[in-house]
Amino acid sequence: MLLLGACAGWSLITAAAHDGRPEGMLLAVLAVAAGYATGRVSGALLPVAAPCAGAVVGLALAAALPGLSPGPWYAAPPGHAGATAALLTLTAGAACCAAWATALPALRLGLGALACATVPAGVALGSAAGCVAGAAVLLCSLAAGSARGRGPWLTGPALAAGVVAATIWALAAGALPDGLAGALEGRFPAHRVQQWRDALRLAGRNSGLGVGPGRFGELSRITPRTPLSDGRPHSAPLQQAAEQGVIGVFLLVAVFCWVLYALWRTPRPTPVALTAGAALTALAALASVSNALSFTTVTAGAGLLAGWATARPWAGDTLAPGR
Predict the structure, then answer these.
(1) CA 152, 154, 157, 161 torsion-angle sign
(2) How far is CA 36 from CA 24, 31, 81, 125, in A?
C-alpha cells in the first residue's frame, strides 16, 4: 500500500509541476489496489473457485470486447491490442493457479483444459503475443510442479522481463548493433520504434520530474503523424520515464519487485506462487512493448491474480513458504 500510495502521490506531484493529467495513473493505482484486495479476500474464502471464475471472465473479455483495440473496432481486430494478449496471459495464470489449488483430479484436468484454451483463443483473435505468452505460462506452470525452491524460479522470469525492458530501451537509444536493431524493428509497426525514441528524448530532457502524466501525446513529434494513435508510446517503462522521470520508473519497478517478494513469501503451494509469478512476469514483458497497462481490465486483473496467489486460506492446512 505504501508503494501504491507513492505511485499516486508522485503522479500528483509531477502533474502539478507540469500541468499534467494524473487521472490515468490514479485509476491504474486504484484498479490494482482494488483487484489485490478483492483477490486476497476471495482467495482466502474460495481458493479454487475464485481464480477459476476469474479465468472464465478473462477469456470472455478478451474474446467479446472489441473496445480493447486501440483503434475503431472496424479498423483492427482486438488481437492487435496489447490488452488482449495481457488478458489471455492473466487468464492462463489464473486457470493454472486454480488447477494447482485443487486436490480433485477431474477438476484439475478441466482447469488445465481451460488454461490450454488461451492458446487457440490467441490464434483465433489474431494475437500472436497472447498465444505465445499463454503457452509460456502453461509451460512454466507445468515445470513449477517439480520445483523445490522459489527464489531461483522467480528470479529467472524477472530477469527475462528486465532483459526485454532493457532491450527496448537500448533499441530506442540506438545502442544495439545494426543487424539486431533491424531485426527487432521489423517485428513492430513502423512508427512504434519512433515513438519509443520520442519518449526517450523527452525523458532525457526532463529526467527529474518528466513532462507530466498524460502529456506525451501533446509533446511527441511522432504521435500527431501516427494514424489511430492513442497518445502513448506503447511501453510502460518509457512512458514512465518520459512523463514522471526516473522516480516514476523506480516506483514501477519497485511495485513489480514487491509482488515477486510477496509470491516468494506466500503460504500458498509453490506451484501456485510460481505460476502467478510467471504470468505477471509475462505481463511485465508485454507492458514493455505495448499499451497493456493502459486498460483498467488489465491492471485490475493483475491485482486479482496477485491477490489470489498471496491469499491465506481460512480453511485447511497451508504449506510453509518455499515448500
Answers:
(1) negative
(2) 18, 8, 24, 28
* Alpha carbon distance 290, 69 (integer Å): 12
Contact between 38 and 97 (Cβ < 8 Å) = no
Q: What is the pLDDT of residues 40-90, one digit of tens each?
A: 999 999 999 999 999 999 999 988 865 554 443 333 333 346 888 999 999
Q: How far is CA 258 from CA 31, 255, 263, 310, in A?
A: 17, 5, 9, 12
Q: How many CB atoms lie within 10 A of CB 108?
A: 16
pTM score > 0.85 for this model?
A: yes
What 3-state class would DSSP assign to 187?
coil
Sign of the CA dihedral 119, 277, 78, 111? Answer: positive
Q: What is the pLDDT of residues 121-164, one digit of tens each?
A: 998 888 888 999 999 999 999 999 888 889 888 998 889 999 99
The per-residue DSSP string of 204-232 comes to HHSTTT-S-TT-HHHH-SSGGGSTT--SS
What secondary structure letter does DSSP report for 145?
A: T
Is residue 239 very low, low, confident or very high in pLDDT (cuts 50, 70, 90)? very high
From 119, 79, 107, 112, select the one nearest 94 (Cα to Cα): 112
Q: How far apart are CA 97 and CA 158, in angstroms?
A: 19
Find the helix or strand (DSSP H, E) in which 274 lies: helix 270-288
C-beta separation of 285 from 159 below 8 A: no
> How many residues are there in the chain?
323
Residue 99: count other Cβ atoms within 10 Å of its Cβ. Answer: 25
